[in-house]
Design goal:
The protein has 118 residues and is mainly alpha-helical. Helix content is 43%, strand content 8%.
Length: 118
Amino acid sequence: MNRPGRDDSPDRLYTLTGGRSRSDPGLFDLVTLVVAESDPAPGMQSEHAAILRMCRRPAAVVEIAAELGLPGGIVRIMLSDLLGTGRISARHPRPARATHRLPDPDILEQVLVGLRNL
């Protein structure tokens, strides 16, 4: 079902990605933050220019896809093009530290008892 004002035909998506169907699997995930390193250049593909304008402040891949109305996989391919030319940088989220200790079970038990007494 087509949505008004949106052209997501396979021909358009093929053109946007230059015929590629996948990007480097470890390069971008949906929460990777993207930051523009340059302004759009004249003659640049309109979607690439839109990404650069959108990423003047850090934006997650999922936000970019939603704003452009394109599938995440297509956006990742376009982002890999921009990364390859140095027009964007990517900041991957930091994994949680494994050094954090869980709270003492006795303290948790005391909190639970206190909550039940309320």
